[in-house]
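Bug report (template v2)

What were you trying to do?
Predict the complex of my protein with flavin-adenine dinucleotide.

What happened?
Run completed; filing so the output is reviewed.

Input:
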Amino acid sequence: FHVPHANIKRQVSQLRSSYDFVIVGGGTSGLTVADRLTEAFPSKNVLVVEYGDVKQFTPGTFDPPTTWANPLHPEYAPFFVFFPIPSPDVKNKTGFVGAGQTVGGSSATNGQFFDRGSRYDYDSWAEAAGPGYEAWNWRGLFPYFKKSVTFHPPSAALVQKHGYTWDISAYGGSTPIHASFPPFQWEDREILWNTWKDLGLKPSRECAAGEKEGICFVPTSQHPVTAKRSHAGLAHYADVVASRPNYDLLVRHQGIRVIYPNGLQSGPPTVEVKSLLDSHVFNITATAEVVLAAGSLHTPTILQRSGIGPAGFLQSAGIPVVLDLPGVGSNLHDHSGPFAVTWNYTNPGNFSEIPERMDTDPAYLADSIAGFSENPARGPYTLGLANTAIYVSLPKLAPNHQAIVNRIRQIANDGSASSYLPAEYRTNPDMIRGYKAQLLAIANKLANPKAPSLETPWATGTSLQAFLLHPLSRGTVRLNLNDHLAQPILDYRTGSNPVDFDIHLAHVKFLRQLVNTPTMQQYGAVEVAPGPGVQSDADLVEFIKDQMTVSFQHPSGTAALLPKNKGGVVGPGLKVHDTAGLRVVDMSILSVNIGGHLSSTAYAVGEKAAAIIIEEWTVTGKGKGKAKAKARR
Ligand SMILES: Cc1cc2nc3c(=O)[nH]c(=O)nc-3n(C[C@H](O)[C@H](O)[C@H](O)COP(=O)(O)OP(=O)(O)OC[C@H]3O[C@@H](n4cnc5c(N)ncnc54)[C@H](O)[C@@H]3O)c2cc1C
């Protein structure tokens, strides 16, 4: 970060008396919106209120020292750290769930795996929501994916060395959110690439253009030369703010709630914030709009503290009900997945560059650290989480796929869907209607041989996770009743819809075939887990529960883009239902999760939301212009 100190505000006395736009949450989506609004409207002032601070050092996933995502070392990557309520259906498992707590949000602290969902994921948002939401399908989002990122093709030498492929037509932006392939890969990565081909999967030239079934190369969100993390705090704040006198950032302040002194239609609301430096609580006036962009785990807390949420819960928390909106903090879902298969090689190849060498060869480690600081950077530390993954559809991997799809459709239609929802809202007709719409949209995806159900990323090694891309189980984010300003309580309810286990089972059965492929046999692969003793479906499900990781760090759905009568929180313009001057722009709007990691989608949603807001304020000067949905499709 190289930001003139004056641009960063730390106390109320440094603020203007009012702002046109106030954005709560300076993360991936929020800063994208702030950048576009300050650019489009030089005469309108924009304030971003951010809980975290400006970090001089937000390391990449695998930068030295490699303490990334370690809850014990939040100083290296500042996180909110959650351990959800244990999920009884997965043997009371909990697990680490993080959320970025810095300027740049989770884009500044994530694993830098920079894929997109498939077109079917975004189409399913429009499908689940129904008429009026068509602009949120793939066609409606693709231009914003392109705008949001700059892809840097690798050199011919790297293509020759690592086999990278891409299709530049999937990209196109000039935005300095960088996507690139690193100069380094572990040598044994090749084994699995060939194994997947043995299993009938096909490499895809580009997986960010709508179709991603097969074997994918996935770029890293980092600079192509320095290999340093690229994130919203840099590209949408530090790099642009010097030329934007209308762009203010207030750090170390918690957005508490929004207040409508004269009724919900009198918006925009006032924003109540608390200084984390001296506990001073004060109000900020927005004259045009308030945008909540605090992420899936915090946006619902701001709404709940505002009295906007499930009436029953608000009453139990002693919060006056301003608007009964049961979807706020409901519909929580994340990708989950067991460590599906682990194996040993009895005839390991003669690979020189594998991670173990970092532990056994001090000179190699020293050279790797030195190489990371060179320009251009080189060596192992230029790697992110991984650059390769398989994405496999249910029809491709499960002989019983039709039965699974039929079961989901049956649940959606036979009146039993509500029994899988959290007790708190399983009798609410709107929430049930919305859940059924989600189930049917997911069933259509799972029936589609082009829509992936399983993701397995890898970079090296002898162990693989099997991530469920379309979970059916739903949980909640609720305020802590003991302290409404403390971190919320997450109830993941992982596995509460048992069909999730049918799908996990299919995934594990598919993956464990790998040891029998010709490529693996060449290296004498022998399965260690699940292991020869685990063969029956019942035993495999026990194994899955034992091995389950409940979060892939992709919580979503807690302020869903659905009509109100489907338990939705925001409409097609991302305005909170039945309110004026209040929108949500972050990953809480995902009614159904995507088959991919979320950061590129967070940028695209931010870009699209900004285009909607800009259009509305340009047409009428009052933010009331009818959005031209067609133009954005
Ligand atoms: C550990 C981890 C690893 C991940 N790995 C990957 C990956 O490899 N690839 C990928 O694509 N995605 C990954 N993700 C997911 C992805 O980065 C996020 O889903 C996405 O960036 C979220 O964007 P957002 O705009 O919804 O929220 P965020 O980017 O999280 O922004 C929310 C912001 O709001 C602030 N905030 C919260 N509460 C308040 C409040 N009350 N007042 C003011 N500010 C507040 C936060 O500090 C934060 O800056 C990962 C996430 C995590 C946590």
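What did the reviewer find?
The chain has a mean pLDDT of 95. The chain is about 30% helix and 15% strand.
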